[in-house]
Amino acid sequence: MRQQKLRAAIRAADLDGLIVTHLPNLFYLTNFLGTAGVAVVMPERVFLIVDFRYNAAVRSLAASDYGSPDTEIILVDRSYDETLVAHVRTLQAPRLGVEGSNLSISRFDHLRKSLGAAATLTPTEGLVEKLRIVKDPHEIEMLRRGALLLSAVALDVLHDAKPGLSEQELAAKVDWRIKSAGFERCSFETIVASGTNAAHPHAHAGERLLRAGDLVVLDFGGVYGGYCVDLTRTVALGQPDAEQQRVYDAVLEAQDAAIAAVKPGARAGDIDRAAREALGGHKLAEAFGHSTGHGLGVEIHESPRIGPRREATADAPAPPDDAIEPGMVFTIEPGAYVPDWGGVRIEDDVLVTPDGVEVLTNVPRALLIN
Amino acid sequence: MRQQKLRAAIRAADLDGLIVTHLPNLFYLTNFLGTAGVAVVMPERVFLIVDFRYNAAVRSLAASDYGSPDTEIILVDRSYDETLVAHVRTLQAPRLGVEGSNLSISRFDHLRKSLGAAATLTPTEGLVEKLRIVKDPHEIEMLRRGALLLSAVALDVLHDAKPGLSEQELAAKVDWRIKSAGFERCSFETIVASGTNAAHPHAHAGERLLRAGDLVVLDFGGVYGGYCVDLTRTVALGQPDAEQQRVYDAVLEAQDAAIAAVKPGARAGDIDRAAREALGGHKLAEAFGHSTGHGLGVEIHESPRIGPRREATADAPAPPDDAIEPGMVFTIEPGAYVPDWGGVRIEDDVLVTPDGVEVLTNVPRALLIN
């Protein structure tokens, strides 16, 4: 089904096939999960090139219900690109697309030179990524289960945040819980940002010890069945002071407003503006420097981007402000970051339904006081 | 120092500067550790472009002993590439290199169009990577400490491998120990491959329960001070049978032979051949399908590649077979993989010294029987 849709997109681009080098796209199309691999998607067949390391894995995949149909496995001889070139030469001078955002200039030039007249290569943009924006029922099922499992992890993790523990120790505990819960791996490097460190939205967990009076931002995620989920909560160590509670409530209000704006037909910019205006009402607009959310799927950051509408410039027209459709899954994660004070972020994962929105994660959102 | 060497390479390529987009190279040059960022290295200055999220981090770096000299921080306005283009326009029509193996075709085309006559962009190959192959004293110190710390982790981890635990549970335990030991993160996804699963050199840890009679391959690593170390041991659960002991001993002999071949002036292909011939002596040449080792540094896989010498083809000349020099750090990790039976791999990290070799990791190499 995914391959059929891709073939329609390939034909619409006036191409005979597509060389798929972006590994998340390879997984999406074939269920093959490795750290190397190339596919050539042709009208009747998919050629999947993998190296010796994956020989056994790819053959058991092919024999399973999850193997992609009409797929021929080709083992690497010497190098990926030599094998790819040798294989493409056996096709009949095809017009092949390559993935322009993934393929490096060096590799593109090398492939073109090696192929000579045996094929023409044309950069394409996001042919597979566009298919991935709206999730199919299997993907929604994986994301739903992942979000529930991550919520269960969160209930434990949030109570682990206690004075005396270092950020790194707490992050290691989070990671251990994620993997023990059955996730394949963490979907990104766990963030534990305490006290003034939380003023950096993407702080690395460091050696700082958590202490009473801190707000602690915990942002973590897992990969379940190949799909990424993502959750953030901010915890208070001891009774919060008035400013901590005020900023927390403002971010929570922004998240409520953004979630309420999610529905088919809305624009991503509308959802983002809802969060931004709520924070602005508390004089915290300047403290919110990132986008309100990002798509979730085979990658932890994918389309749609839930951010401010971008205006046209002298150099570029305004990019499209994604129309929200049923089947999209993304995060809603407003935050407020105040230098030398700290920060707050609250993040949940939502699915766009035909009627509006379903919040897939399920963890209390009131400020937890440890 | 690193920047000075790079500037010499830039001048030798007849360029005025280099746009650095590969993040490990960015870290190497500036010590900035983020998930996004671009640098423009010019003769007198380095311009480091980062977004809002890293503002506080990059300013505290600049104020520390680890900040790179003569670096000017530029905050992203709207997008990285718009900011980059606007900044390059303020320089005087420079001839700039880009990183050909890192920059995508799409991004290259977009930058070229946006810059027009304001600059010329030329793909370059590995200008920074070439500097990174031979480590400086600070890097050797980080790798040495990392290797010792990882060895300490291994002593615990190897005893954790017991019948009844699942591969995933054991991998989670490994990860927890790595992070608790003070590593910044795992340097790759931990491999726990037991029984017949170990026939796949890069098996993911799965749901299989370890059981008596298994050989279990544990391959794991950490990042210390920004530098990656890597270690593999194979453990027997219960008394090994004759074939398990035979294959283990053959791999150990191959590792000994390869380590003995490491010295300044050797070729990478010599080291690889030493391992391969040892395995061949036990009729296991076919069972060893990967390279003998890979460089370690800011990335977990970098130059030199310790693999078979590649011959010239009709399409390409023979690539250089790296000459081994003091200051190189790489893994020595022969293995044997037998379908439907299992596998063995033994991996240590070595530093090339003026006199020969120093093994940085330090964990008993005899078959551990749990």
**CATH arch. level architecture of the largest domain in chain A:** Alpha-Beta Complex
If interface size is counted as residues with C-beta under 8 Å from the partner's C-beta, which chains form the largest one?
A: A-B, 51 and 51 residues
Strand segment tally of chain A:
18
How many helical elements of chain A? 10
Described by its quaternary structure, the protein is homodimer
Q: Could you say how many structural domains of chain A there are in total?
A: 2
Keywords:
homodimer, 370 residues, alpha+beta, 2 domains, six-stranded mixed β-sheet, five-stranded mixed β-sheet, 10 helices, 18 strands, 34% helix
Structure description:
The structure is a homodimer of 370-residue chains. Chain A has 370 residues and is an alpha+beta fold. Chain A folds into two domains: 2-132, 3-Layer(aba) Sandwich (Creatine Amidinohydrolase, Chain A, domain 1); 137-369, Creatine Amidinohydrolase (Alpha-Beta Complex). In chain A, 34% of the residues lie in helices and 23% in strands. Chain A is built from ten helices and 18 strands. Chain A has helices at residues 2-12, 23-30, 55-62, 80-90, 105-115, 127-132, 137-160, 167-180, 242-260, 268-280; strands spanning 17-20, 38-41, 46-50, 71-75, 95-99, 120-124, 185-186, 191-194, 215-224, 227-236, 293-295, 302-306, 329-332, 335-338, 342-345, 348-352, 357-359, 368-369. In chain A, the strands form five sheets. Chain A has a six-stranded mixed sheet with strand order 4-3-2-1-5-6, with helices on both faces. In chain A, strands 7, 8, 9, 10 and 18 form a five-stranded mixed sheet that branches. In chain A, a hairpin with a 4-residue loop joins strand 16 and strand 17. In chain A, helix 4 (80-90) crosses helix 5 and helix 9 packs antiparallel against helix 10 (268-280). Chain A is elongated, with a radius of gyration of 23 Å. The N and C termini of chain A lie far apart (49 Å). The model of chain A has no long low-confidence stretch (mean pLDDT 93).
